[in-house]
Amino acid sequence: MSKIAVLTDSTASIPENILNELNICTVAYYIHRGQEVLRDLLTIQRKEFLDWLVTARVLPTTASPGPGDYLEAYRALAEKGSDEIVSIHMTSQGSGAYQAATVAQSILQEQQPELRVEVIDTRNVSLCQGWMVIEAARAAVAGLKLDEVIARIKSMIPVTRMIQTADTLKYLYMGGRIGRAKHLVGTLLNIKPLIGMDDGVIVPLGTARSRGQAYQMMVDKVEEMVGEGEIKIAYVHAGARQEVEKIRQMVEGRLNTVESLVAELSPALAVHTGPGTAGLCYCPVLAGG
User: Fold this and answer.
1) What is the CATH number of domain 161-284?
2) Residue 23 — left, alpha, or beta (φ > 0 → left; ψ -120 to 50 → alpha)?
């Protein structure tokens, strides 16, 4: 393991094989389903949760890990030989993870001042956060210094973007994560809303008459942003693998994609997006990336 450890949350939704390959540590979110307390991707898995979610009359709630969860994870990494840790989290506008990790960082600094922990607010979510984690882990494996790893992450924050669609925004609305896209909640059932994230807050990106048209709009928007430049794309979904394969075919026929992956959202994110969500998270390839 690199002496620089990379830690993130289960909501980054990074595929298991990549987590293992790059020694990325994850801390599980909490899902409160009635009287049950579940741990994201530990005590509840994707298919089981989505099968239940479509029948739910009341949405479960989610909670970020607490300072104690992060402190335990930091200590475990230190015991494995890491003396520097970069802790990468979803937008602080939508979760308390960044704040909790910062509290844990302060406690650890007092108790073990020889360890250095840097906590980063990605101002994003899902595989946008995930791309930053992956690139940070690759940089650590390549032998970059911690400040260089942090600089790489921060250079990605303003240019890594998400676009997704679903048949309904009721899950985002009910979960209180709708952001500036609130006015789209009342759209007709035959309208497919597109949403993204701007500086950590959900924003509307338009509406389409069908999923096919929504996917075409996604490709157009990505092409408008990156032109002929090289990009890395994660196709993300919640129980909608066939739908993201459609997006993938459209994207990779038009854009200069140098790396891609398909990932299913973790249960703690699927609570808010709902089953059937499909979209993409992309990042232009930056110098040295």
Assistant:
1) 3.30.1180.10
2) left
